[in-house]
Specification:
Elements lengths: L12 H22 L20
Length: 54
């Protein structure tokens, strides 16, 4: 083992985790932009002040 240098290998786990987190965030951003829900009917009611108003 004379003259052989050991390179420290970086663990691949944190890199893979970082890539997965970035992909999830980008996916959520893309899919949230695609959601275009619109109400089917107007949800407004007239508000009247009754005798119990203070």
């Amino acid at each position: 083992m004379i003259g052989t240098a050991h390179k420290k290998r970086r663990p691949k786990g944190p890199i893979i985790l970082l890539v997965l987190i970035i992909l999830v965030v980008v996916g959520l951003f893309v899919f949230s932009g695609m959601a275009s829900e619109e109400p089917v009917q107007v949800i407004e009611e007239e508000v009247t002040l009754g005798s119990d108003a203070q």
